[in-house]
Backbone:
């Protein structure tokens, strides 16, 4: 009984820590597009100093494409958990899920158009609607489907990009979009709020609607929701917590493989589109899984749990903190705020990110000492259930 209790405690703590850690990792990557036109430039052409290039390489290998998979998987995990509880209570979850994801859909669009165009909530909401169709299946089937949808297209696209590079090496390289960079700097750096909003909407369209971008977003996000739901149904986290030695060995193997794949562009050619795609679509998720396994392992020990608890505090208010990061980012860098867009180094951006997140951790702890949820989590729950629960 004691072992079961310890495993369940490790599971609960692990989920909050993973949400908080993912939130911080996503913020590190998002900070690049808060203070510069990251959507449109080649980082190795944009950043000039050795310090900034080293900082970007660190983010590119250890952070980029390795934390949004964790956040998406935790989203699927939470949805599966709510589905199970709702079915046990009333036998149905569909309308609850529809209300829940409708709120997120509208919130995501408002966030994208009026605060920051790199919003991920809208995409999560659309994928959440799709997930409702799969929740009745077993955990094993959800895991298998998620892995197939994740790695099947990734391997196919990787092969196509490598073949395309052989026939046209010039077009296989990622080039800076000078026109889009200029438009972003003009709007975000010195434009009015209306001009910034127009640019935000254009950036959001480019990332979600142009040339099949939304379909690409779906196949890079939805599999993680399936995997997260499958992990919950299979009680995978509790199983990992119950066998520390195997869990540690699994981390070492996944981390080594993920690090090798994430390092491919840096070993061969950092501007090669095929290498960049392999790095993000295959190496990123593999490194993400290694991080998750490591966190589960560490949460089975009391001392690491204490060290990781700040991430858990932020993770319990992940929606509120995610939106606040965008508010801070836009007010610091856009012209209607302090106007530092395009004017700081990458290293300064990282330090700013760490500072803001540290403040969020402190505020989250103070808030949660009085309330069970963050303010946006409360609003989301009220819209979903029609009453405070």
Residues:
């Amino acid at each position: 009984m004691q072992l079961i209790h310890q495993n369940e405690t490790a599971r609960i703590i692990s989920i909050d820590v993973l949400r908080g850690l993912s939130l911080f990792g996503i913020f590190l990557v998002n900070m690049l597009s808060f203070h510069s036109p990251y959507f449109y430039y080649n980082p190795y052409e944009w950043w000039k100093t050795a310090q900034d290039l080293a900082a970007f390489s660190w983010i590119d290998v250890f952070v980029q494409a390795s934390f949004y998979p964790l956040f998406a998987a935790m989203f699927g995990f939470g949805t599966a958990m709510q589905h199970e509880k709702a079915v046990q209570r009333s036998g149905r979850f569909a309308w609850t899920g529809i209300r829940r994801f409708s709120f997120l859909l509208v919130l995501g669009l408002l966030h994208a158009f009026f605060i920051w165009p790199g919003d991920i909530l809208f995409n999560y909401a659309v994928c959440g609607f799709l997930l409702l169709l799969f929740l009745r299946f077993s955990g094993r089937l959800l895991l298998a489907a998620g892995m197939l949808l994740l790695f099947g297209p990734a391997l196919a696209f990787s092969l196509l990009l490598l073949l395309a590079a052989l026939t046209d090496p010039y077009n296989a390289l990622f080039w800076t979009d000078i026109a889009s960079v200029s438009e972003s700097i003009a709007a975000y750096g010195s434009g009015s709020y209306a001009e910034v909003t127009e640019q935000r909407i254009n950036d959001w369209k480019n990332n979600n609607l142009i040339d099949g971008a939304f379909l690409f977003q779906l196949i890079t996000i939805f599999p993680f929701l399936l995997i997260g739901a499958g992990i919950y149904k299979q009680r995978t986290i509790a199983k990992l917590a119950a066998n520390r030695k195997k869990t540690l060995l699994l981390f070492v193997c996944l981390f080594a493989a993920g690090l090798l794949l994430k390092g491919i562009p840096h070993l061969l050619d950092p501007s090669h589109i095929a290498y960049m795609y392999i790095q993000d679509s295959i190496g990123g998720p593999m490194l993400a899984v290694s991080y998750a396994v490591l966190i589960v392992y560490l949460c089975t020990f009391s001392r690491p749990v204490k060290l990781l608890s700040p991430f858990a505090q932020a993770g319990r208010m992940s929606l509120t903190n995610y939106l606040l990061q965008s508010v801070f980012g836009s007010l610091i860098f856009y012209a209607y705020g302090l106007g530092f867009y395009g004017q700081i180094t990458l290293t300064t951006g990282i330090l700013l990110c760490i500072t803001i997140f540290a403040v969020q951790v402190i505020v989250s702890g103070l808030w949660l000492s009085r309330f069970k949820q963050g303010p946006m989590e409360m609003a989301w729950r009220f819209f979903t259930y029609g009453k405070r629960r």
About this structure: Residues 2-35 form the longest helix (34 residues). The CA atoms of residues 37 and 308 lie 33 Å apart. Residues 1-9 have pLDDT under 50 and may be disordered.
